[in-house]
Amino acid sequence: MRTLKTSEAAAVLNVSPNTLRAWERRFGYPKPQRSPGKHRLYTHGEIAALRDALQEGLSISSAISRARESVSADTHVLVGALAAYELERADAAMEGALALRSVERSVEEVLIPSLEEIADRHGTDSAPWALAARWASEWLQRAQRLSPPATRRPTVLLGDATRDALDPDALALRALELCITRSGVRALTLPVTGLAGLGDVLTSYAPRVVVIAGGDEADDAVARWAYRVRAGAGALPILLFRRRGRDERTRTTGARHLPASPTLASSQLSDFIEGGARDLSLNEPLDLDLDDDVAVPPGRGRLTA
Length: 305
Known about the structure:
This protein is α/β, with parallel strands linked by helices. It folds into two domains: about 5-140, Orthogonal Bundle (Multidrug-efflux Transporter Regulator, Chain: A, Domain 2), CATH 1.10.1660; about 150-305, 3-Layer(aba) Sandwich (Rossmann fold). About 50% of the residues lie in helices and about 15% in strands. It contains eleven helices and ten strands. It has a four-stranded parallel sheet, sandwiched between helices. A three-stranded antiparallel sheet has the order 1-3-2. A three-stranded antiparallel sheet has the order 8-9-10, covered by helices on one side.
């Protein structure tokens, strides 16, 4: 994917860099990503779409609306392909999305909304959803394999508390794992039901922060796993991702929830690892009150983050 610096994007649009930044602040478009040095990088496809709209003589607000419509067309194409069970066309739709966006934004703005629309149309217990979800999971796995290797040693440990591969939260977890990896941080996903041999894995990977993702597994199972993680790796901060929305028996209180957006959640985690996010409130407790019959050592129900 081709990107442009602020000065280059402004030159394509024949405006000053200050004007380009003013459009970004006022209209939220074009929406840049950030380089490792925190400099703006604009996607060439978005800039080109805006340039073409401006060349038609439209006002800036109308031109931005036109450009947005052009970019959002990828979502409609992907939904159509998945609804028609044409998986090769779905692959092509994502290739088209990648021509205009980064991998992260393609996932956030095209793949996830398209899957949500399929779920709304058919339900997550339907055959169309199963087909679309399995395709999306395979696409995310391919993107993960093609991602550059992580360059920073710290590891984010992701505790998988989702139902199965067809759980919508499982797709969000795969997307989060991809975004974390592409930020240069190692990501390791383990099921919260897997306790045997956990200490050896923790010793090898030395995680810096733990994220419990998904709302299917009960709090007592999550608490057992979290206790074992801390027994093996120390008092690590524990955050929650997409764990809201469980039934009325949910007893998780006081813990910090990451944004439901995989890209925003990954950004917060990256900032924390770099030591720049003081507002994560990681000293708040993760309070998992356990039933009397849960086999966790006395006094270990409250996990202080």
